[in-house]
Design brief:
Structural class: alpha/beta
Oligomer: single chain
Bound molecules: NADPH dihydro-nicotinamide-adenine-dinucleotide phosphate
Shape: globular
Distance between the termini: 32 Å
Helix content: 25-40%
Radius of gyration: 18 Å
Largest sheet: 6 strands, mixed
Order of helices and strands: EHEHEHEHEEHEHEHEEHEHEHH
Length: 272
Protein backbone atom coordinates (compact mmCIF):
# COMPACT_ATOMS: atom_id res chain seq x y z
CA UNK A 1 0.00 0.00 0.00
CA UNK A 2 1.20 3.53 -0.72
CA UNK A 3 2.69 5.03 2.42
CA UNK A 4 2.54 8.67 3.57
CA UNK A 5 3.85 10.32 6.74
CA UNK A 6 3.90 13.55 8.60
CA UNK A 7 7.34 14.16 10.11
CA UNK A 8 7.83 16.53 13.04
CA UNK A 9 9.09 16.99 16.57
CA UNK A 10 6.83 17.17 18.53
CA UNK A 11 4.17 15.35 16.50
CA UNK A 12 1.62 13.88 18.93
CA UNK A 13 -0.63 16.94 18.49
CA UNK A 14 -0.77 16.57 14.70
CA UNK A 15 -4.23 16.44 13.12
CA UNK A 16 -2.78 15.49 9.72
CA UNK A 17 -3.35 11.70 9.97
CA UNK A 18 -7.03 12.30 10.75
CA UNK A 19 -7.41 14.82 7.92
CA UNK A 20 -5.73 12.59 5.32
CA UNK A 21 -7.66 9.52 6.41
CA UNK A 22 -10.85 11.53 5.88
CA UNK A 23 -9.65 12.68 2.43
CA UNK A 24 -8.75 9.08 1.48
CA UNK A 25 -12.18 7.76 2.54
CA UNK A 26 -13.98 10.55 0.74
CA UNK A 27 -12.07 10.04 -2.54
CA UNK A 28 -11.87 6.23 -2.22
CA UNK A 29 -8.10 6.15 -2.27
CA UNK A 30 -6.23 3.23 -0.71
CA UNK A 31 -3.30 4.57 1.24
CA UNK A 32 -1.76 4.65 4.69
CA UNK A 33 -0.92 7.98 6.33
CA UNK A 34 0.65 8.10 9.81
CA UNK A 35 2.66 10.46 11.97
CA UNK A 36 6.29 9.93 12.91
CA UNK A 37 8.22 11.59 15.69
CA UNK A 38 11.66 12.29 14.25
CA UNK A 39 14.79 12.87 16.34
CA UNK A 40 16.23 16.33 15.78
CA UNK A 41 19.20 14.81 13.92
CA UNK A 42 17.17 12.07 12.23
CA UNK A 43 15.19 13.76 9.46
CA UNK A 44 17.17 12.52 6.46
CA UNK A 45 17.24 8.95 7.81
CA UNK A 46 13.46 9.05 8.36
CA UNK A 47 12.86 10.18 4.77
CA UNK A 48 15.20 7.48 3.39
CA UNK A 49 13.39 4.83 5.44
CA UNK A 50 10.06 5.99 4.05
CA UNK A 51 11.40 5.86 0.48
CA UNK A 52 12.61 2.28 1.08
CA UNK A 53 9.19 1.29 2.43
CA UNK A 54 6.91 2.18 -0.45
CA UNK A 55 6.74 5.84 0.58
CA UNK A 56 4.96 8.07 -1.92
CA UNK A 57 4.97 11.30 0.00
CA UNK A 58 5.17 13.15 3.29
CA UNK A 59 4.18 16.30 5.09
CA UNK A 60 6.86 18.10 7.02
CA UNK A 61 6.22 20.23 10.05
CA UNK A 62 8.34 22.10 12.59
CA UNK A 63 11.26 22.06 12.93
CA UNK A 64 12.14 20.28 9.66
CA UNK A 65 10.67 22.47 6.89
CA UNK A 66 13.97 24.18 6.07
CA UNK A 67 15.91 20.89 6.24
CA UNK A 68 13.36 19.33 3.90
CA UNK A 69 14.03 22.16 1.47
CA UNK A 70 17.75 21.25 1.33
CA UNK A 71 17.02 17.53 0.89
CA UNK A 72 14.83 17.74 -2.21
CA UNK A 73 16.03 16.79 -5.72
CA UNK A 74 13.54 19.20 -7.31
CA UNK A 75 11.65 22.18 -5.90
CA UNK A 76 8.53 24.02 -7.03
CA UNK A 77 8.86 27.75 -7.73
CA UNK A 78 6.83 28.58 -4.61
CA UNK A 79 9.02 26.33 -2.44
CA UNK A 80 12.15 27.99 -3.86
CA UNK A 81 10.78 31.40 -2.91
CA UNK A 82 9.65 30.22 0.53
CA UNK A 83 12.94 28.48 1.34
CA UNK A 84 10.83 25.86 3.07
CA UNK A 85 8.95 22.70 2.12
CA UNK A 86 5.86 21.17 3.76
CA UNK A 87 5.13 18.51 1.11
CA UNK A 88 7.45 15.82 -0.25
CA UNK A 89 6.42 13.88 -3.34
CA UNK A 90 8.43 10.72 -3.88
CA UNK A 91 8.75 9.33 -7.39
CA UNK A 92 11.29 6.76 -8.57
CA UNK A 93 13.43 7.40 -5.50
CA UNK A 94 13.60 11.15 -6.17
CA UNK A 95 12.09 13.80 -3.91
CA UNK A 96 10.09 16.71 -5.26
CA UNK A 97 9.43 19.47 -2.70
CA UNK A 98 6.54 21.92 -2.60
CA UNK A 99 4.77 24.14 -0.08
CA UNK A 100 1.00 24.31 0.22
CA UNK A 101 0.78 26.62 3.27
CA UNK A 102 0.09 29.69 1.12
CA UNK A 103 -2.67 27.94 -0.77
CA UNK A 104 -4.21 26.80 2.53
CA UNK A 105 -4.16 30.31 3.97
CA UNK A 106 -5.51 32.09 0.89
CA UNK A 107 -8.30 29.54 0.32
CA UNK A 108 -9.35 29.81 3.95
CA UNK A 109 -9.44 33.61 3.84
CA UNK A 110 -11.43 33.56 0.60
CA UNK A 111 -13.86 30.95 1.90
CA UNK A 112 -14.43 33.22 4.91
CA UNK A 113 -15.36 35.96 2.43
CA UNK A 114 -12.21 37.98 3.12
CA UNK A 115 -11.32 39.76 -0.10
CA UNK A 116 -7.56 40.20 -0.55
CA UNK A 117 -7.41 42.06 -3.85
CA UNK A 118 -6.83 45.77 -3.31
CA UNK A 119 -6.52 45.34 0.46
CA UNK A 120 -3.71 46.46 2.78
CA UNK A 121 -2.24 43.39 4.50
CA UNK A 122 0.10 43.22 7.48
CA UNK A 123 1.87 39.89 7.98
CA UNK A 124 3.37 39.38 11.45
CA UNK A 125 6.39 37.06 11.65
CA UNK A 126 9.22 36.14 9.32
CA UNK A 127 9.72 32.44 10.06
CA UNK A 128 8.90 29.45 7.86
CA UNK A 129 5.14 30.02 8.01
CA UNK A 130 5.36 33.67 6.96
CA UNK A 131 7.82 32.88 4.15
CA UNK A 132 5.56 30.08 2.94
CA UNK A 133 2.55 32.34 2.38
CA UNK A 134 4.14 35.46 0.86
CA UNK A 135 3.88 34.41 -2.79
CA UNK A 136 0.28 33.22 -2.47
CA UNK A 137 -0.74 36.48 -0.80
CA UNK A 138 0.96 38.58 -3.49
CA UNK A 139 -0.82 36.59 -6.21
CA UNK A 140 -4.10 37.92 -4.79
CA UNK A 141 -2.97 41.47 -5.69
CA UNK A 142 -3.26 43.27 -2.36
CA UNK A 143 -2.69 47.04 -2.62
CA UNK A 144 0.02 46.71 0.04
CA UNK A 145 1.83 43.87 1.82
CA UNK A 146 3.91 44.76 4.86
CA UNK A 147 5.87 42.21 6.88
CA UNK A 148 6.68 42.98 10.51
CA UNK A 149 8.90 40.91 12.74
CA UNK A 150 10.48 41.07 16.18
CA UNK A 151 13.86 40.59 14.48
CA UNK A 152 13.67 43.24 11.76
CA UNK A 153 16.57 41.84 9.72
CA UNK A 154 14.64 38.62 9.06
CA UNK A 155 11.63 40.57 7.77
CA UNK A 156 13.93 42.61 5.52
CA UNK A 157 15.43 39.43 4.06
CA UNK A 158 11.97 38.08 3.25
CA UNK A 159 10.86 41.38 1.66
CA UNK A 160 13.98 41.40 -0.53
CA UNK A 161 12.86 38.13 -2.14
CA UNK A 162 9.99 40.01 -3.83
CA UNK A 163 11.65 43.02 -5.49
CA UNK A 164 8.86 43.50 -8.04
CA UNK A 165 6.20 43.91 -5.38
CA UNK A 166 7.79 46.58 -3.14
CA UNK A 167 7.01 44.65 0.03
CA UNK A 168 7.84 46.76 3.08
CA UNK A 169 9.58 45.33 6.16
CA UNK A 170 9.01 46.91 9.56
CA UNK A 171 9.55 46.33 13.24
CA UNK A 172 6.34 45.94 15.26
CA UNK A 173 6.63 49.42 16.74
CA UNK A 174 6.79 51.04 13.30
CA UNK A 175 3.44 49.53 12.33
CA UNK A 176 1.72 51.36 15.20
CA UNK A 177 0.43 54.34 13.22
CA UNK A 178 -0.32 52.49 10.00
CA UNK A 179 -3.71 51.26 8.83
CA UNK A 180 -4.31 47.74 7.51
CA UNK A 181 -7.47 45.95 6.43
CA UNK A 182 -6.18 42.48 7.26
CA UNK A 183 -3.60 41.47 9.88
CA UNK A 184 -2.26 37.93 9.77
CA UNK A 185 -0.34 36.47 12.69
CA UNK A 186 2.33 34.05 11.46
CA UNK A 187 4.40 34.15 14.64
CA UNK A 188 4.56 31.33 17.15
CA UNK A 189 4.02 33.75 20.06
CA UNK A 190 0.51 32.41 20.72
CA UNK A 191 1.79 28.88 21.34
CA UNK A 192 3.41 30.02 24.58
CA UNK A 193 0.51 32.34 25.41
CA UNK A 194 2.77 35.39 24.88
CA UNK A 195 1.06 38.64 23.89
CA UNK A 196 2.33 40.01 20.60
CA UNK A 197 3.99 43.42 20.75
CA UNK A 198 1.48 44.84 18.26
CA UNK A 199 -0.12 48.15 19.20
CA UNK A 200 -3.85 48.24 19.97
CA UNK A 201 -4.05 51.33 17.79
CA UNK A 202 -2.96 49.36 14.71
CA UNK A 203 -5.02 46.29 15.53
CA UNK A 204 -8.33 48.01 16.12
CA UNK A 205 -8.35 49.63 12.67
CA UNK A 206 -8.31 46.22 10.94
CA UNK A 207 -11.49 44.57 9.70
CA UNK A 208 -10.05 41.04 9.74
CA UNK A 209 -7.47 39.44 12.03
CA UNK A 210 -6.26 35.94 11.16
CA UNK A 211 -4.12 33.74 13.41
CA UNK A 212 -2.31 30.75 11.88
CA UNK A 213 -2.36 29.22 15.35
CA UNK A 214 -5.54 27.46 16.55
CA UNK A 215 -6.66 25.72 19.69
CA UNK A 216 -9.60 24.91 21.91
CA UNK A 217 -9.60 28.44 23.29
CA UNK A 218 -9.42 31.62 21.22
CA UNK A 219 -5.74 32.50 20.72
CA UNK A 220 -4.25 35.49 22.62
CA UNK A 221 -3.92 37.46 19.35
CA UNK A 222 -7.55 36.90 18.34
CA UNK A 223 -8.71 37.65 21.88
CA UNK A 224 -6.82 40.95 21.79
CA UNK A 225 -8.36 41.82 18.40
CA UNK A 226 -11.91 40.85 19.40
CA UNK A 227 -11.65 42.85 22.62
CA UNK A 228 -10.67 45.87 20.54
CA UNK A 229 -13.78 45.46 18.40
CA UNK A 230 -12.38 43.70 15.31
CA UNK A 231 -15.44 41.93 13.96
CA UNK A 232 -13.87 39.23 11.83
CA UNK A 233 -11.41 37.02 13.75
CA UNK A 234 -10.37 33.69 12.23
CA UNK A 235 -8.01 30.98 13.51
CA UNK A 236 -5.73 28.73 11.45
CA UNK A 237 -7.72 25.48 11.51
CA UNK A 238 -9.08 26.11 8.03
CA UNK A 239 -5.55 26.81 6.79
CA UNK A 240 -4.43 23.49 8.25
CA UNK A 241 -7.13 21.59 6.34
CA UNK A 242 -6.46 23.65 3.19
CA UNK A 243 -2.73 22.98 3.16
CA UNK A 244 -3.45 19.27 3.70
CA UNK A 245 -5.86 19.31 0.74
CA UNK A 246 -3.11 20.89 -1.38
CA UNK A 247 -0.69 18.09 -0.45
CA UNK A 248 -3.31 15.39 -1.07
CA UNK A 249 -4.01 16.74 -4.54
CA UNK A 250 -0.30 16.81 -5.38
CA UNK A 251 0.02 13.16 -4.34
CA UNK A 252 -3.21 11.68 -5.65
CA UNK A 253 -4.26 14.10 -8.38
CA UNK A 254 -7.72 14.44 -6.79
CA UNK A 255 -9.02 17.54 -5.03
CA UNK A 256 -10.64 16.55 -1.72
CA UNK A 257 -13.59 18.41 -0.22
CA UNK A 258 -12.52 20.38 2.86
CA UNK A 259 -15.61 21.91 4.52
CA UNK A 260 -16.90 18.67 6.07
CA UNK A 261 -13.46 17.73 7.42
CA UNK A 262 -13.06 21.20 8.91
CA UNK A 263 -16.43 20.87 10.69
CA UNK A 264 -15.41 17.50 12.14
CA UNK A 265 -12.10 18.91 13.37
CA UNK A 266 -13.77 21.99 14.83
CA UNK A 267 -16.22 19.82 16.76
CA UNK A 268 -13.41 17.60 18.02
CA UNK A 269 -11.37 20.61 19.13
CA UNK A 270 -14.33 21.94 21.13
CA UNK A 271 -14.95 18.71 23.00
CA UNK A 272 -11.33 17.71 23.82
P1 LIG B 1 9.30 29.77 13.15
O1 LIG B 1 9.93 29.25 14.39
O2 LIG B 1 9.97 29.57 11.85
O3 LIG B 1 9.08 31.40 13.31
C1 LIG B 1 8.55 31.92 14.49
C2 LIG B 1 8.20 33.39 14.28
O4 LIG B 1 7.51 33.86 15.45
C3 LIG B 1 9.40 34.31 14.08
O5 LIG B 1 9.04 35.34 13.20
C4 LIG B 1 9.62 34.85 15.51
O6 LIG B 1 10.26 36.12 15.55
C5 LIG B 1 8.20 35.01 15.96
N1 LIG B 1 8.01 35.01 17.42
C6 LIG B 1 8.13 33.96 18.26
N2 LIG B 1 7.83 34.34 19.52
C7 LIG B 1 7.53 35.66 19.47
C8 LIG B 1 7.11 36.63 20.45
N3 LIG B 1 6.98 36.30 21.74
N4 LIG B 1 6.87 37.89 20.03
C9 LIG B 1 6.99 38.22 18.73
N5 LIG B 1 7.36 37.36 17.75
C10 LIG B 1 7.63 36.09 18.13
O7 LIG B 1 7.83 29.17 13.15
P2 LIG B 1 6.88 28.97 11.88
O8 LIG B 1 7.00 30.19 11.05
O9 LIG B 1 7.12 27.65 11.25
O10 LIG B 1 5.42 28.88 12.54
C11 LIG B 1 4.78 30.02 13.09
C12 LIG B 1 3.41 29.64 13.61
O11 LIG B 1 2.53 29.34 12.53
C13 LIG B 1 3.45 28.40 14.50
O12 LIG B 1 2.67 28.68 15.64
C14 LIG B 1 2.82 27.31 13.66
O13 LIG B 1 2.12 26.38 14.47
C15 LIG B 1 1.84 28.12 12.81
N6 LIG B 1 1.53 27.46 11.51
C16 LIG B 1 0.24 27.12 11.26
C17 LIG B 1 -0.10 26.50 10.06
C18 LIG B 1 -1.53 26.14 9.79
O14 LIG B 1 -1.76 25.36 8.86
N7 LIG B 1 -2.48 26.67 10.53
C19 LIG B 1 0.92 26.19 9.04
C20 LIG B 1 2.25 26.62 9.39
C21 LIG B 1 2.53 27.21 10.60
P3 LIG B 1 11.88 36.23 15.51
O15 LIG B 1 12.26 36.07 14.07
O16 LIG B 1 12.15 37.58 16.05
O17 LIG B 1 12.38 35.11 16.37
Amino acid sequence: MDQYRVFGNPIAQSKSPFIHQQFALQTQQTLNYSSELVALDGFEAAVNKLIANNGRGANVTAPFKEQAFTLCDHLSKRAQLAGAVNTLIIENGLIYGDTTDGLGLVNDLLSNNVQLEGRRILLLGAGGAAKGVMQALLEQLPSQLVIANRTLLKAERVAELYPKHSVKALSFSHAENMTFDIIINATSAGLSGAKLPIADLCLKKATTCYDMVYGKEQTPFLKQAATLGVTNVIDGLGMLVGQAAGSFELWRNIKPETAGVLSLLRAELRTN
